[in-house]
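In response to reviewer comment 3 from the previous cycle, which asked for concrete evidence that the modeling workflow produces usable outputs, we include below a single protein chain processed end to end. The sequence was submitted unchanged, and the resulting structure tokens are shown without manual editing.
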Amino acid sequence: MSKPHFLLCFLGFSIFFSCSYVYASTSSNPLQLQTLNTKPEHINPKLPPRTLSSSNKFEGSSDLVQLRYHMGPVLSSSPINIYLIWYGRWAASQKLLIKDFINSISPATAAAKPTVSEWWRTVSLYTDQTGANVSRSVLIAGEYTDKAYSHGAHLTRLSIQQVIATAVKSAPFPVDHKNGIYLILTAQDVTVQDFCRAVCGFHYFTFPSMVGYTLPYAWVGNSGKQCPDVCAYPFAIPGYMGGGGPGALKAPNGDVGVDGMISVIGHELAELSSNPLVNAWYAGEDPTAPTEIGDLCEGLYGTGGGGGYIGQVMRDKQGRTFNMYGGRGRKFLVQWIWSPELKACAGPNAMD
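The workflow returned the following structure tokens.
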């Protein structure tokens, strides 16, 4: 989540591959047979620091983190309905990649482990005052595309709410107070207030004066052409390195901008589900500048992270870096989330 600049706060975010072989022989055939080991390699690369980062990272447990419940609601009703708003021009392959990630949260068929659905299990540990947990069931309930850039190629934090109002009033979406999340995704040629400079995504709720209703929403932008070193890290490294430091990691699906968005989307969905009206789960006493469950683990993707290391992640034979599997054979690199049980950052690929 991003720290606000005014009272209306908006909440936001040298490696080589080696192959292993197994040798076998029998008395009837003394020739040695070579079989490629297809299991991914585990690595813990040390990278230059992310350009935009104000969050503390707590790979181990910490009594210093005072994450508290402030008596507000969480998204406990099932399912959580996500309404996608595609703003600008999007390739079909990019839309499919993002939808595959969201659909992997509660998939129809199990994926190889560690999974996105196991990652969401940490989010579902958060409860409201009745003891109801954040829902484990998440689905895409509708989509709306604005290819005409009807509110311009530059959006402010408030005009993003106008984009939501357009989608709701054009009637592709219902007004879903109880179960709904409205997720606005801006294309790589759309500039947004504070994007790249202070935020990669944020979440808040709409104002009745703007939209007609109070609805939880999140925005995430495609940084592929604007600031990949900021918002698609670690698939792009800061420009000041000048090629003299460790190389960027290879994106698991071959699209630096969208692969980078995936972790930001996960970050915002986790925080929006556990703190939809900014009065539920966060650390700190100031609700205009809370630290939420994704902020505490920003930049951590595996065991042993911190001090420039992103943690133990996997690398496949194509050199693609990831830490969890999704549906349709997808691989994703998604940051860890703070666990209220462990009082530490947690993820499905933990090595201990």
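The longest strand covers residues 138-146. We consider this sufficient to address the reviewer's concern, and the full set will be provided in the supplementary archive.
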